């Protein structure tokens, strides 16, 4: 009930903040001869808001709910480990880190093709199918008897989950104008953040099933969460929507005229609503743009910290701060709840004032303040306060970074390539995050803290350099010296400017 209430409040705030922007987004000529401008459809401002609200509820909440269970499934190892998995499967030396790490090998390798596949077969089939399959994999984890079996299933889980997040990032970026996407990204990730907040409490409750059917409590964590995932995947098949320009018949929640209006307003904003025929050369050509890799590196730095927290926060609370196992499971929730508040507040500010870089930098500063507090202060209460700052800053930067890259690219296939590389680097950050807090460094985990501080500082440097470059290029475009961001058909939108 808590998450449902929070989602309702979030979308009411989104609607209020969008009131003026929706009207502005419908004005202006649409790129492409013969295309209708959004103003030509005759919808009143109230009708326009109603259409966007329908899209919000059908798209953002559905993928958000599916993402929250994805996040729980890939990060529940920490809860299972302190619930007895480490003892039952003899996770000595570096075995726990290996089990955490192998997930990301397939997770990273199989992400680049996912945005092409989802375009070809549609989000409804693609996302629902892989969700059902990885839920089945999760159920299987509850019955393993050797740590090698668990590692093998984690490899399979990485393969199945690889297509989910980049496809969602890509799908969301095609539905909204540039200064609406920040709030939607934050709500999408906010649902996952709420899940992370309560995942520890859920795991603690499932631990109490120890002995039922002769299974230990950690096994029930995997089994019950796997069953929930399968059910959500089945529901997703009926609830998910397609791309705004698609012709596949799963559009019952919008009429033809409303669909055309959605496409027209997005096209008026950036002129790239319809994809060109797929060309591998054009798809890969996006990799020649160094900015694409800069966005990806920002996400790598961000996810290094978020995954380190996801995998090791229960252990840090137990071993470094002296809390009991039950208390540690429950104390994970408040920092993630606080992160949700910071996440939506910064996303609202970013969309309202049309800024991206300063939002990312602000979140980095929260991490830079919080990490030394979490690692080096003598009082456990202050260290726990540091956890709040780090969790908020790192997690709020996930949707902030998503919006940063989405605002500064054009062209559907470049958007697809950028989404894939962006999330792939996030997966590599997951590998780093699963290794930074090493068993031999406990209880202080100082090297891991230094690594998190270093990646956060690097993000600040990259954002600073990008902002200077965006400012320079925008001024040249204003003087008519250089066009910015051609799309997949090598055409430029004269009004496009980078957001910094």
UniProtKB/TrEMBL annotation:
Keywords: Membrane, Transmembrane, Transmembrane helix, Transport. GO terms for cellular component: membrane. The chain crosses the membrane at residues 59-77, 97-118, 125-144, 156-175, 187-206, 218-240, 292-313, 325-348, 360-378, 384-404, 416-436, 448-468. Its main location: membrane. It is a multi-pass membrane protein. It is found in: Membrane. Signal peptide: none annotated. PROSITE patterns: MFS. It comes from Thermothelomyces thermophilus (strain ATCC 42464 / BCRC 31852 / DSM 1799) (Sporotrichum thermophile). This is General substrate transporter. Pfam families: MFS_1. One of its GO terms (molecular function) is transmembrane transporter activity. InterPro entries: MFS (IPR011701), MFS_dom (IPR020846), MFS_trans_sf (IPR036259). Residues 59-471 form the Major facilitator superfamily (MFS) profile domain.
